[in-house]
Fold this protein.
Amino acid sequence: MRRMRRYGPLLAGLSLLLFLPSGTAPTPAAAEPAPPERPFGATCRTAVEGARVTAYCHNPYPETDHVRLHIECDRWWDIDSDAVAVAAEPALTVRLTGRCWKEVRSAWVSHNPLP
């Protein structure tokens, strides 16, 4: 009987927590779902042949994408280059070219929407 007095309130509280309907607990306010993002950006293929780099970018989306070719040269004395941004209009393919004096370490294309 002594144990019942000691643990009785604890068991009663625990049973209330376990058997309360789930709808009585407060829930946080439901956040509005974010609108789905529209697809954007030209698809680019980059090819390196010796010291020359060529990239073809095709834009299948209705917004214009500004694409830039970036080239990192392998030799420390060879100057890396960042081309001028070219507008890849909707449903068009643009060609970007560049080169190093010697070997190319890496080349990539960056994308930027029109402001």
Summary: The longest helix spans residues 2-19. The chain is about 15% helix and 40% strand.
